[in-house]
Amino acid sequence: MTDVAITSPRFRWVQDFRSLGQSTQFALVGGFIMLAAMLLVGLVISGVVARTITDSRATNSALFLDSILSPLVQELAQEETLSPASIARLDNALKNNTLSERFAHVDIWMRDGRLAYSTSPDLIGGRFAPPEGTARAFEGEVSSRYTDLTADEHIARAWTTKYLEIYAPLREHRSGRIIAVVEVHELAHRLQSRLRRVATQTWLAVSGATLLIALALIGVVYGSSRLIGEQQAALRNRIAEIERVSNQNRELRRKVQRASGRLAEMNERYLRHVAAELHDGPIQIVGLSALKIEQVRRAADAEGREAVLQSIETLLGDASRDMRVIAHGLMLPEIEGLSLNEIIARAIRIHEQRTGTRVSVACGEIRHGASQALRICVYRFVQEGLNNAYRHAAARGQAVECRLDKDRLVVRVSDEGGVSPGRDRKSDGSLGLAGLRERVESLGGTFSVSHRRQGTTIEMSVALGEGEEA
């Protein structure tokens, strides 16, 4: 059910998102979260800064007005209203160009909601619902807010412009008792202009910091993602290489098993062949000689006995010769302690001595050690290859080449004689090419035969294992 839901068109974006790289996923998710965090932090910081600037402006204005107005309203400590002379003095003080340009309206509130003074003369003595700021000011706090145009006193003035309202307490000089609250309506365009500049600077700072943090994190994640990607690619390549080597090892193991089985079968056939050769050759001759012994006993004279004995001697000589030929094919020359170059040279020398022919040799120096099994395999390979060249190519162009290809030994035996199609080159009384293939493959090597008009070439390639006995 989950797979169906995720692959449906409505959730296709989830699958598309999962297909993106880790750095891209982080950039999208992290960018969205950082954008939300930037907006939240920007709003909070800009709000705090704006409130701080506004409160600072209100405090400064309150202190400034208190220094001007407080001496003019001291009579409110004993009276409920201001005298006309005090009102006139207040008018004169507030008509100063500097004050009138900064403060559009000034109201002085009593605790009961009466206006003891106002720059709007028709409101003096009027009673209105006290603004919220007056209550806080009567408690000794300086507060500020933007004009509430729905307030009764502002409706009476028919105001449409919002001012910054500042509420500050006015105290009696001797006792410090709060006797009234002054409400100042300050023109807000300068303050708002400053707040906009500060807000712009705040947002630029927050945005810049967020961008730098995002770039730094994305850079770190991108670098880590690239490193992880490289490691994953290297790991995949390593796994593929291990799998390839494992497949090669399995194939090699199968070849070795098949080669071992076929080699055992061929050895068994070879033993039967040797037994048949012994039975059909020397044993038959020895049996015939045993029968002639009876003729010696029955011979009538010494001359007859001598003739039979000569016949027996001839037969036994033939049997001895046949047995030496068979034994010669079974025996391997002493190669213990010889290097690969010396083993190849000995096989070539023995072949030249037996056949009276010449063999071309092109072998580089091979200093690697080799196991006894590899020594025997190389000797039999050269021996069998030269025997085939002698029998089937009349020894024309006999050549032996050997070289090292990195850590692999390559040996090649070739001749310049032709071979009839379908004819299988095998040595009489030996394992033949099939036996050589089994020998080479049992050591983990490769064996190949190529027939051309110019002649036949056999080649073996075997890895020289490290740590083999020299």
TrEMBL record:
The chain crosses the membrane at residues 26-50, 202-222. InterPro entries: HATPase_C_sf, HATPase_dom, Sensor_HK_TwoCompSys. SMART domains: HATPase_c. Its EC number is 2.7.13.3. It catalyses: ATP + protein L-histidine = ADP + protein N-phospho-L-histidine. Residues 235-269 form a coiled coil. It comes from the Bacteria. One of its GO terms (biological process) is phosphorelay signal transduction system. The keyword Aminoacyl-tRNA synthetase does not apply. This is histidine kinase. The keyword DNA-binding does not apply. Keywords: Coiled coil, Kinase, Membrane, Transferase, Transmembrane, Transmembrane helix, Two-component regulatory system. One of its GO terms (molecular function) is protein histidine kinase activity.
